[in-house]
Amino acid sequence: MNKKPYRPGPKRPSNATRPRGRNRKMAGKNDQDTNAINDEIRASEVRLVGDNVEQGIYPIDKALKIAEEQELDLILIAPQAEPPVCRVMDYQKFKFQQRKHAKEQKAKSTKLVVKEIRFGPQTDEHDYNFKLKHAIGFLKEGAKVKSYVFFKGRSILFKEQGEVLLLRFANDLEEYGKLDQMPVLEGKRMTIMLSPKKPGKKKESKEAASDGGAQQDNTPAEE
């Protein structure tokens, strides 16, 4: 049986350029991406926004041409608008910005932890120092500290003493947390709230103090 001779097809020129604009296939574009781009956009006209275009309403062919001339992509960002809104920019840069924004929003929405520390109006020194160490640990972990003095029965007569105690507590924690509000009496409770300081603030204060001489370490020992 005679075999037909092999005849290779035409080779692609080595200097062939990659298709650009609406005709190029986006690297990294997959079925899970929610934003239509380029020829995936089915609207007859769109509103262009962004710094690199003259904003306004354009026929889809004109909008695609604008993106192609800049070697960028036409990205649908608001499909429910009338007409739909598009942005001209590099698709990979657009996705990067989206991921960055989502990460920032997630960080902002992280559940805030609040730890409570209770005192009596006549708390002794040992109990005070024990609770102070716990508060330092909470603030270092990034939690807020809600500290209050509970007045039981006739102990409400010592409310001024409770206020002094809370202000001393806030002052002793000044290195680790900032006072959000002065002592407030609500019913039988007098309360203060402290927020943790950012990690950089403690370091900066030590560096500033070291300019004038050696810094003594007065940080309480951890249990």
Any descriptors?
223 residues, Ubiquitin-like (UB roll), Translation Initiation Factor IF3, four-stranded mixed β-sheet, rod-shaped
Describe this structure in words.
- Strand 3 (73-78) and strand 4 (85-89) form a beta hairpin.
- The protein is rod-shaped.
- The longest helix has 18 residues, at 91-108.
- Among the domains are: 34-100, Translation initiation factor 3 (IF-3), N-terminal domain (Ubiquitin-like (UB roll), Roll); 114-202, 2-Layer Sandwich (Translation Initiation Factor IF3).
- It is α/β, with parallel strands linked by helices and 223 residues long.
- Helix content is 31%, strand content 23%.
- The chain has five helices and eight strands, in the order ββαββαβαβαββα.
- Strands 2-1-4-3 form a four-stranded mixed β-sheet.
Helix content: 25-40%
Number of β-strand runs: 8
Would you tell me the structural class of the helices and strands? alpha/beta
Q: How would you sum up the global shape?
A: rod-shaped
**Side-by-side strand order of the widest sheet:** 2-1-4-3
Q: Could you report the average pLDDT, rounded to the nearest whole number?
A: 77
Query: For the record, what is the CATH homologous superfamily label of the domain at 114-202?
Result: Translation initiation factor 3 (IF-3), C-terminal domain
Question: What is the CATH topology classification name of the domain at 114-202?
Answer: Translation Initiation Factor IF3
The largest sheet is:
4 strands, mixed
- Runs in which pLDDT lies below 50 for 5 or more consecutive residues are 9-25, 200-223
